[in-house]
Design the sequence.
């Protein structure tokens, strides 16, 4: 992880050295690449300790309202004989290559940037929630404060400023690695070249650009498990 | 015992609210009612005249109320103009924004063409001179008779009605993310249950707006039994496709809800809601129309509720089902009651202000205008 951060920041200082605009600053260190960057994330599940620091930092960074989440670490307990283990599955928008959330938007408010990041133009969104239905990963929701579609943006505002996404920055175990998939020398590219990786719901053919290392096939789709013990509406029930 | 326990995950709330249920219900009823007017008005079949008049009221009431519910389902209703200013034509929803006014415009023109002879000649209720003057004015007397307008408007509205049925089904069917919705049976079932609900609505209107017509009731009851049998067949075909594993999506859809006791009760309830009124309609085709009609209306509504609200309780990645609690406010119960109240208001206003009992092709209106009570018997 430290390698990824160091290379990221050395690129950042290089880009900041030249007085460049925000758009150019979005491509620190990899502007040599023809066609610009394609941002992606590799999640090394073995390194995730399930601390939810990413969940909290994402909420703080992006002012995600109460009871909503752009990212969450789904946590599972798996029993095998008399052994019990935990499986951590950080979930966020996959910034799919072929995202089903985009063609359904009736007003073209949701779109993909040249660097692959899928975003919502909040000024155009009518809040019809069609994209929420279309995402196979439950990665979108209607923000109760803005009444518009909301989702992980790969922290585009930070990336554009040459910073790492908040969840990557705060990841305690170093499980979230962010970088340019177009750059064969980037940490994410090298990790993907060296390791077997998986994406969620490959059968949906969405081309996710969040890759998982060390994730069992049983967790790629809708997880067959005993239902969750806690979720926000439970808390609401308890309150009322 | 499942070896995997989900210890921590989140609930995603239903993003399409009960307003969406109301919209799909009402627009389906409106289209179904419009189709029921065609034999009486567009094809000038006198035996279908009263049925057509009642169905026209149903089509207008539900047609006017539906877009209100649709707007309310947008979380940013003030921005609806963006549907027209910046449409993304890859989206079925964007097309719907054009089909709805196309259909409603055609329906209004069709209704005017059917009402015009009555507006021009029908005797207004006693002491309603103002109303009579308004009718005469609304008939646009300075225009020549337009005998071609009714069939032309009927064709226009029928074309858009088909597009509305198509888009409402496709809009939901294309969502591969939800196996329960991603089935070609869904648009068919929306259409079939819309027709059954519309027949039910006309049966109820027949009871509310006398004089009742037993002959028409029997015809409607037969149609109702047929449409409900079709709905049962479509539902059965969907179930069989899932049970026999003929298709992975259908099997996944079934698997996502099969273990849930609530869904099993819902399935039995839905089957009964179709079978009971069908049996009633066949067993007692006269005199029970209002009851079979009410149950059929309930079945059409419940199908949409189960599809939309029930469908959204199925997590896309998580285990089990999300809990849904009907909010009491405008996003829930109040919204449902509000649309019901709005429909009732429209029903009272339209039946009080329009000479609907004289509606029909020009000749029918003359017949209706002759007696003091302008209601023509259903069987002419
Ligand atoms: S994960 Fe969902 S919201 Fe994100 S790009 Fe893919 S389809 Fe769209
Ligand atoms: S909620 Fe907004 S971004 Fe999503 S489909 Fe509707 S208009 Fe588009
Ligand atoms: S990249 Fe940013 S928006 Fe996305 S999950 Fe991480 S912190 Fe949240």
Sequence:
């Amino acid at each position: 992880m430290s390698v990824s951060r160091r290379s990221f920041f050395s690129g950042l200082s290089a880009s900041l050295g030249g007085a460049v605009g925000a758009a150019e600053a979005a491509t620190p260190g990899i502007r040599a690449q023809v066609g610009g960057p394609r941002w992606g994330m590799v999640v090394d599940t073995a390194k995730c300790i399930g601390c939810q620091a990413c969940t909290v930092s994402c909420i703080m960074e992006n002012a995600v309202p109460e009871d909503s989440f752009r990212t969450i670490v789904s946590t599972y307990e798996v029993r095998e004989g008399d052994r019990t283990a935990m499986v951590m599955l950080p979930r966020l928008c996959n910034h799919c290559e072929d995202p089903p959330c985009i063609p359904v938007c009736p007003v073209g408010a949701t779109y993909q940037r040249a660097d692959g990041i899928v975003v919502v133009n909040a000024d155009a969104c009518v809040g019809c929630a069609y994209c929420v239905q279309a995402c196979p990963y439950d990665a979108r929701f209607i923000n109760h404060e803005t009444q518009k579609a909301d989702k992980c943006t790969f922290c585009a505002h930070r990336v554009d400023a040459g910073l790492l996404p908040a969840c990557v920055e705060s990841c305690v175990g170093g499980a979230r690695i962010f970088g340019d998939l177009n750059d064969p020398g980037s940490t994410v590219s090298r990790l993907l070249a060296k390791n077997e990786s998986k994406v969620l719901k490959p059968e949906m053919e969405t081309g996710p650009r969040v890759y998982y290392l060390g994730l069992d096939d049983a967790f790629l789709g809708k997880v067959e498990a005993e239902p969750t013990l806690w979720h926000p509406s439970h808390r609401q029930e308890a309150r009322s | 015992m499942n070896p995997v326990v989900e210890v921590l995950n989140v609930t995603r709330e239903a993003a399409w609210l009960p307003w969406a249920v109301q919209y799909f219900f009402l627009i389906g009823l409106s289209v179904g009612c419009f189709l029921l007017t065609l034999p009486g008005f567009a094809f000038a079949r006198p035996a279908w005249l009263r049925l057509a008049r009642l169905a026209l009221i149903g089509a207008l009431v539900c047609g006017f109320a539906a877009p209100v519910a649709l707007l309310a389902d947008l979380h940013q209703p003030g921005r609806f103009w963006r549907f027209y200013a910046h449409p993304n034509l890859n989206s079925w929803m964007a097309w719907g924004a054009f089909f709805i006014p196309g259909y409603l415009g055609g329906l209004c023109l069709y209704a005017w063409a059917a009402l015009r002879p009555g507006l021009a000649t029908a005797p207004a209720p006693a002491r309603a001179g103002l109303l009579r003057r308004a009718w005469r004015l609304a008939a646009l007397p300075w225009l020549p008779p337009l005998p071609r307008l009714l069939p032309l408007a009927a064709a226009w509205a029928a074309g858009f009605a088909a597009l509305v049925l198509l888009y409402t089904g496709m809009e939901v069917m294309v969502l591969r993310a939800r196996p329960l919705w991603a089935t070609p049976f869904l648009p068919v079932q929306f259409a079939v249950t819309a027709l059954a609900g519309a027949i039910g609505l006309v049966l109820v209107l027949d009871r509310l707006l006398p004089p009742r017509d037993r002959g028409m009731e029997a015809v409607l009851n037969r149609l109702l039994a047929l449409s409900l049998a079709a709905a049962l067949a479509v539902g059965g075909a969907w179930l069989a496709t899932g049970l026999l594993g003929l298709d992975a999506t259908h099997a996944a859809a079934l698997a996502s809800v099969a273990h849930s006791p609530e869904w099993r009760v819902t399935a039995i309830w839905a089957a009964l809601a179709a079978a009971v009124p069908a049996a009633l309609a066949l067993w007692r085709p006269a005199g029970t129309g209002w009851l079979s009609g009410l149950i059929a209306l309930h079945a059409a509504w419940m199908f949409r509720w189960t599809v939309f609200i029930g469908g959204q309780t199925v997590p896309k990645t998580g285990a089990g089902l999300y809990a849904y609690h009907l909010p009491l406010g405008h996003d829930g119960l109040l919204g449902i009651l509000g649309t019901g109240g709005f429909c009732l208001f429209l029903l009272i206003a339209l039946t009080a202000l329009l000479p609907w009992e004289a509606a029909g092709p020009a000749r029918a209106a003359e017949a209706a205008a002759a007696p003091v009570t302008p209601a023509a018997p259903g069987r002419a």
In short: Chain B touches chain A through 53 residues (CB under 8 Å). Residues 371-380 of chain B have pLDDT under 50 and may be disordered. Chain B has two domains: 15-174, 189-323.
